């Protein structure tokens, strides 16, 4: 079935899509900072929630979007024609969908509002339905329905809003679904229906509930409903359904008026409005508010604040301005205007991840809410560009999740400093977790020049699990709290630098039989979770090796810039810097493990609290030796060549301590992850990168779905991970997993393989924007499956990496210890017809528009920065590598208001 692609309208990212209901699984996010999280589909299906235990509408998966009959419906009973749904969500309209007589419909989406326009097939009636979540302090979604007579005869109609009120936890969807409806206390008031369950039903203890869910409505000028159908079974009628309810189809008079109280039934916010006659060309509007509140709802306030057309339009304007201001902090202008608009939606996605976590949209990766440790740090990458004001506090708070053994809590609560061991209290360690904080913190330091952050004190996370969750400390009790204590019961604090050193040095000694860091519960790929004993991650050994060298350079920079001549650490940690006391033979796996065990034993059940100072240059040299040893080890032992003559890095060992990649009886095995971090971290030489690229194109590149995460391994790999139980070409087993594909592009750009990196990014854009295959709105999905469909839209860490790659590598706009570094890596097609490409972004608290001028039309590699002007005046710069450095002081002299223009002329 062919379907037209969405198309952008104007220059602000707004798009439209005709007949959107002909594409399955489409949904759109609506959200605010107050905690209202909604998802809405072209037929107004979806969900509304403020958390796992507070769903106004029934929790849904993508399958429910089409199979469930519940939705935000608004019905019109037309005299002479019968019942009609403005969203198309009726049994009669659904039956006509593929008959050739379907109604004309169109969707428009903007930041962050959703509009569906539908034409009645015969009656001459047009409905425009707009939904958004206002940027107020209420957990509320608003909907306005405008009905217009487009015919030549008067229309007599009776409107009914009908939103089913689920009103409880997602856990009650199957478990005690009916029993929890008996807790419902339903009230009708002048403007609508409100449900306050008597108890919060929980097998651990049934508590008195205060949470309330409401559906309220009014006409454009405040006209109140004339009655209600608050009980679902009374609304649908015997034999009826939510997509063909008797109350509407038979145009029944509402039996319930304002002031009623009902108990013990499933509820629906069904609001009947007064019958109205529309002359040709005449229109009438209705505003509906859907609310989640902490207690009974102040109906009069809600009516005054939300329930009029004038107020709706005012709030919609505020909403658009709010989101546009957030997204205007980064704007790209290239030779492809459609891709620039597409990037606007990518720019939104990291903010959505902060607000939704990984849950509460129909493709919920984790359905219970919260974010993981890795998500926390990677989302911060984009927030430093998008919302930099709070990043320092975020980073500082995040480090409180580090354990003294170098592992960390894996789930982050809703409050700063709130951590738990794991979502289901299952102790697991993802071996990659320690690597990400340094990457994020370095980006912050380069953007800000704030080396002082490294010296800030922070606590450590503590629970019953010790020695990287291999043992339980039975002397620990929950009453002690979740902070590490000293032997005399005081809360221990170490600097942020101490936390970073700990996370990156302990893995160096935590090695398997082949000298690489143990895989433990998994690495970045959560699906590699079945090799906890003998599995090794070569890929992330490369990442940690790179980190050790980065840390070495950071310490030397601190010494030079601030005069800092020592590093203060817990006395127990000194053993980890072995070259300063008792050197360990790094080729000896037994010696490395023994040293780490001695360290573990010294910090259980507590630390002494004493500190030691080490010479900062000696520590830097120790880290350098470790990093260089690890890199040489990988080059010497993990570079493989197969029968076809292709060469690349092995990425993993399984739980039988067998090398995973290369020629196997089932075929050639290769992972993209194993190539990304060896390239990005500098393990791969330039010659090797060329060979890796060739091998990736041979074994992983697929024109239909892009760069696969891995080749076909064959079998379910019980000694490596659950990912291989997935069908090949789906999720972590051979799909185009956007996160690692974007990181592959980033690594190529970073190492100067710009054409190859450009091809990777271009493939992601073209695959995502190919609506006929991807069936998704603008943005980047978590992955693209075997059929080319974009999956798990909106909530993906790949958006942060794509935004960061586009800004810092493609446009080459980044910080260097607080100064502004410019090193563009733009390809010739990325300049517009005037030979210009530009980006607007925040730096040093100022909005800058950086315009690259390429008057000679040179391609990357053939141009250099010739001159820089700031607001029309020549600006001195220092040549740095292939780019230049501009002192931060030159930027800080500028006004904090307005947009300042840097023009960078490129020449041969």
TrEMBL record:
InterPro entries, per the entry: 6-hairpin_glycosidase_sf, 6hp_glycosidase-like_sf, Gal_mutarotase_sf_dom, GH65_N, GH94_catalytic, GH94_Enzymes, Glyco_hydrolase_94_b-supersand
Key words of the record: Glycosyltransferase, Transferase
Annotated TM spans: none
Every Glycosyl hydrolase 94 catalytic domain range: 628-810
Source domain of life: Bacteria
Nucleotide-binding listed as a keyword: no
Gene3D superfamilies named in the record: 1.50.10.10, Glycoside hydrolase, family 65, N-terminal domain
Residue span, Glycosyl hydrolase 94 supersandwich domain: 109-307
Protein name: Cellobiose phosphorylase
Source organism (scientific name): Paenibacillus vini
Phylogenetic lineage: Bacteria, Bacillati, Bacillota, Bacilli, Bacillales
